[in-house]
Amino acid sequence: MTGVRLGVDVGQVRVGVARSDPHGVLATPVATLARDLAAAPEAVPADMAELSRLVSEFEAVEVVVGLPVNLAGRHGPAAVHAKAYAQRLADVIAPVPVALSDERMSTVVASRRLSERGVRGKRQRAVVDQAAAVEILQSWLDAQRRRT
């Protein structure tokens, strides 16, 4: 598996972004984007425009969007929202494919890891979305390697 992948953690307020190395081994944080909820329906929201720019900058071959499955394994309202975001993003960045990946507990795990490193409060809120994107992408990369 070669080529950079971007991982995306979609929240109601922010979007965390991570990237892989070209060999698909390690995910690292990139940015936290503010959600553009005020964009007109026919316009490309600013967060998606920035994701498109990042796809170009890193020459990404795929984007992995976290799908928030609940603990029972069901898709609730947050999953419906993430699927809609992923579809709209796929339209914006075509022909680069967009995949969905189970992100169960990614933000909880990311918050715990940041706390263990002494990152708390406002500093944690500023980077937790990036850390969650790293968790999403790293899990996806590991699963891809196990399949091959």
TrEMBL record:
<dbReference type="Pfam" id="PF03652">
    <property type="entry name" value="RuvX"/>
</dbReference>
<dbReference type="InterPro" id="IPR006641">
    <property type="entry name" value="YqgF/RNaseH-like_dom"/>
</dbReference>
<dbReference type="InterPro" id="IPR005227">
    <property type="entry name" value="YqgF"/>
</dbReference>
<keyword id="KW-0963">Cytoplasm</keyword>
<keyword id="KW-0690">Ribosome biogenesis</keyword>
<protein>
    <recommendedName>
        <fullName>Putative pre-16S rRNA nuclease</fullName>
        <ecNumber>3.1.-.-</ecNumber>
    </recommendedName>
</protein>
<feature type="domain" description="YqgF/RNase H-like">
    <location>
        <begin position="3"/>
        <end position="110"/>
    </location>
</feature>
<keyword id="KW-0378">Hydrolase</keyword>
<comment type="function">
    <text>Could be a nuclease involved in processing of the 5'-end of pre-16S rRNA.</text>
</comment>
<keyword id="KW-0540">Nuclease</keyword>
<dbReference type="InterPro" id="IPR037027">
    <property type="entry name" value="YqgF/RNaseH-like_dom_sf"/>
</dbReference>
<dbReference type="InterPro" id="IPR012337">
    <property type="entry name" value="RNaseH-like_sf"/>
</dbReference>
<comment type="similarity">
    <text>Belongs to the YqgF HJR family.</text>
</comment>
